[in-house]
Amino acid sequence: MGQSIECPNEAWKQHKILTIAVDIGGSLAKLVFFARGAGKLVFQTIETEKISEFMLMMHEIINTQENGSQSNVRIVATGGGAYKFHDLLCQEFPDVVEIARLDEMECLIKGLDYFIHEVPEEVFTYNDLDGEHAVVPEHAKVYPYMLVNIGSGVSIVKVDAPAQYTRVGGSSLGGGTLWGLLSLITGAQTYDEMLSWAQGGDNTQVDMLVGDIYGVDYGKIGLKSTHIASSFGKVFQRGTVKDSTTPDTMSSAETSTKGIQSRKRKFNNADISKSLLYAISNNIGQIALLQAKLHNVPNIYFGGSYIRGHLMTMNTLSYAINFWSSSQKQAFFLKHEGHLGAMGAFLTFQS
Amino acid sequence: MGQSIECPNEAWKQHKILTIAVDIGGSLAKLVFFARGAGKLVFQTIETEKISEFMLMMHEIINTQENGSQSNVRIVATGGGAYKFHDLLCQEFPDVVEIARLDEMECLIKGLDYFIHEVPEEVFTYNDLDGEHAVVPEHAKVYPYMLVNIGSGVSIVKVDAPAQYTRVGGSSLGGGTLWGLLSLITGAQTYDEMLSWAQGGDNTQVDMLVGDIYGVDYGKIGLKSTHIASSFGKVFQRGTVKDSTTPDTMSSAETSTKGIQSRKRKFNNADISKSLLYAISNNIGQIALLQAKLHNVPNIYFGGSYIRGHLMTMNTLSYAINFWSSSQKQAFFLKHEGHLGAMGAFLTFQS
């Protein structure tokens, strides 16, 4: 994910102006530029919290590509941070040709359009059964499509034609929610730590399944006993074993490197991580699917930095789209999922 | 909520058989019976975990109403526990006339129909601006409606006519999820503790708002700066102040009666509770609304034991329905929200 792209467009090698495109979101700041010497599109990311370091990254690019001179440099910014950090950008780069601010949705769509049509091996499908398959969307059948951009939060955009789009909805239960909950409950320090824990977890220790409520399938409405009825639904249960050494006044949750003890019952970090990864991912998938049904759109592209190439996450999203649409709709993923906005911002000034 | 109902049906006073209707769900076991002497429908609830005490409650009713004799008693059970605890019911009540198992969805709809049509003061609307208003649905305009039943998980049922319904979807992010997350994170012991904390909380300490990302409104797509972009989105941020007394090896989350310390930043229980109450409630509201749009249904009834008369929760659900439908659809609440299934089970044997 996020690998540099070789020789994408010969014309770009001739441009005099170095364009540095940035997409500064709630959690992550993304950057794209074209390294003319190497003939590569380069993609970088850092936490928005480390905004000073992000400025340094941009200075470094100017040092390497332009010998430190800002006079042939253009900065194109999108995302919320294009507004929030506009003054900072002006302070840090007073001698650039321009600092442009572009609309986030417009850049997302422009970037996605580029990746779909111009970059082979960019779009792919994935589920555990079929594995990964590169997709070259047939030009006649690309539109309309839906982009579900999962960052700190979720934006859902319907695209009818190039540059013709509507933000039809979104959700506040996004990447920021998952990382926030997991970092607080498990003490995990990085996204990848949480994702690797989820890999080895058993969510049935934490989730309440249909089988837990019924004892059997609820076949009449098509729900198998393994279907999750209530995410995290087993956690509030007090259990029947009272630990007499635990005084009633002691706070019922204490952390450890292994897990959290609650109400005399221990839940481990791996199980918690898997449960919440499923909960957030399934929910995004369901909302995406309901919107796709509402707007009659067959193809759903998942963008944003949430997925990070994690197979379990992609399988969950694919399954949600498949299950809720009775296989009528398709989920697509992107190698440069987190850089759609930055790519669109970059392209705006490449004629 | 859950108050007994006086003299609902004169004919019931003549019945020889005492019907005890139970709806045993993932978290709560609900019960309804008609006390002939007092002429009242009585409603009771206890945690499903306390199943032995639930059996004792049922024995107590038989003691009081039938002098302990089971021979004129019928038990009607619905919910998952009707299957899971069938053997236990047979063991505890070997001499009753019958122990019937009825489908959960069918009972929910039957009970809701009864409450809508036969019990004045049952259905109401609520939002902070307009307050509470009793509603008597016009008979000609009742159907079709949607029932969003929020228990441990969520079921969404479309009702086209009496006894004509389809479960169109649901969500695993329900009451069980909220109580599980809050009990684990805050150490709260009861639903009402969590709800009262939420009342006094400030979710903006925990949630990432549009304004936090943009600095201003994102007016172009109709999102105000106060709109929640990412629930719990502020929690994963590391912050800039490093607490030098905190060794790196120490687990970053510890609980206290006040809150949880994470990454050198403290989040208090009230703010966490409000954030998650909003997150879960808004999400249910959004999914309900998308389903209502998809199925062209104007009226949405919220059932199940999740709401518990909590004004903030009802306002959140009403706002979600209102906002996402541009005021085209309406949210309704019920005084006996948790007893729809038990009521429907009871009614099945009252001819």
UniProtKB/TrEMBL annotation, chains A, B:
User: Any keyword Amino-acid biosynthesis?
Assistant: no
For molecular function, the Gene Ontology terms on record are: ATP binding; pantothenate kinase activity
Keyword match Nucleotide-binding: yes
State the source organism's domain of life.
Eukaryota
Q: In the UniProt record, which is one GO cellular component term?
A: nucleus
Q: Where are the transmembrane segments?
A: none
Give the InterPro entries listed for this entry.
ATPase_NBD, Type_II_PanK
**Keyword list, A-Z:** ATP-binding, Coenzyme A biosynthesis, Nucleotide-binding
Tell me which Gene3D superfamilies the record gives.
3.30.420.40, 3.30.420.510
Query: What protein name is recorded for this chain?
Result: LADA_0H00628g1_1
User: What organism is the protein native to?
Assistant: Lachancea dasiensis
- High-level lineage: Eukaryota, Fungi, Dikarya, Ascomycota, Saccharomycotina
